[in-house]
């Protein structure tokens, strides 16, 4: 997954306030930009699509993507934004923010265009996202800007971490917008997770989970899979294995006692289960004296 490779470089991070008329003429960026509408309204044209941006909206501009921005109305515009690369490279610090279309860019500058990896993300991301939780994104964005502007020791690494958190939240927002039925049932799904986490000392059946949650078995499995990437039974097995591993590593109890406490009929059944889930036998995790 491309997310494992990301090591972002923040080129510009600023909280921009505009009182008068304001226009960004059509341009194509070398890098990426996230622009958040905190106050005011804008009309944003990306390629041939026109969007109205209001408070709580965020725009994603990709490398080489034609776009222009115009402030509308008399209300002041506040638009915190960041320019970034997904990967730090040798020329990252040389690249400037572009305000020109590609026709006006010098031939030697064409190498500055960053690779566009948006389509490799685990969920589709649109150029315009109307946030369901704008306050959280707003705070995360302003935290990045604060770190960038104050430049405390090692701020470059702090903003990397903050940006990754922001990006994951945007991916989640996009995922929820595409899977609204999952978000609608999230409270019930989290209740199921808590139930499974607190019942690791025994086997739990799908029938039991369905009865407890009031959700039909087939719909429950589909919802849980979409929300957490695994079935409820797989999640419960993982939690049981984690609980057993903790007991193996941090207690002196014999494996037979641990197997019994975890609700297994025998040490052999426990060993088979543990090896299936963890890929190793229980004795592998027993600390050597």
UniProtKB/TrEMBL annotation:
Protein name: AraC family transcriptional regulator
Lineage of the species this protein comes from: Bacteria, Bacillati, Bacillota, Bacilli, Bacillales
Coiled coil: none
InterPro entries: AraC-bd (IPR003313), Homeodomain-like_sf (IPR009057), HTH-like (IPR037923), HTH_AraC (IPR018060), HTH_AraC-typ_CS (IPR018062), RmlC-like_jellyroll (IPR014710)
Gene3D superfamilies: Homeodomain-like, Jelly Rolls
Domain of life: Bacteria
Domain HTH araC/xylS-type: 190-288
Swiss-Prot/TrEMBL keywords: DNA-binding, Transcription, Transcription regulation
GO molecular function, a single term: sequence-specific DNA binding
């Amino acid at each position: 997954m491309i997310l494992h490779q990301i090591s972002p470089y923040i080129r510009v991070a600023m909280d921009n306030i505009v009182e008068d008329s304001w226009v960004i003429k059509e341009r194509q960026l070398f890098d990426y930009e996230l622009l958040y509408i905190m106050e005011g309204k804008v009309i944003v044209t990306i390629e041939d699509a026109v969007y109205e941006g209001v408070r709580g909206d965020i725009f994603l501009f990709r490398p080489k993507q034609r776009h222009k921005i115009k402030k509308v109305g008399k209300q002041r515009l506040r638009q915190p934004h960041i320019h970034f690369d997904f990967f730090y490279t040798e020329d990252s610090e040389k690249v400037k923010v572009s305000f020109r279309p590609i026709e006006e860019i010098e031939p030697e500058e064409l190498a500055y265009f960053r690779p566009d990896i948006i389509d490799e993300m685990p969920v589709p991301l649109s150029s315009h996202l109307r946030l369901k939780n704008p306050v959280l994104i707003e705070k995360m964005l302003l935290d990045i800007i604060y770190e960038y502007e104050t430049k405390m020791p090692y701020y470059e690494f702090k903003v990397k971490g903050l940006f990754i958190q922001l990006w994951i939240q945007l991916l989640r927002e996009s995922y929820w917008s595409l899977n609204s039925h999952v978000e609608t049932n999230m409270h019930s799904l989290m209740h199921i997770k808590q139930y499974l986490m607190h019942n690791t000392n025994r086997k739990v059946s799908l029938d039991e989970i369905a009865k407890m949650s009031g959700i039909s078995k087939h719909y429950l499995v589909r919802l849980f899979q979409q929300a957490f990437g695994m079935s409820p039974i797989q999640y419960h097995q993982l939690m049981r294995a984690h609980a057993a591993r903790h007991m193996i590593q941090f207690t002196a109890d014999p494996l037979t006692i641990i197997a019994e406490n975890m609700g297994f009929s025998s040490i052999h059944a426990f060993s088979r289960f543990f090896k299936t889930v963890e890929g190793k036998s229980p004795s592998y995790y027993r600390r050597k004296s």
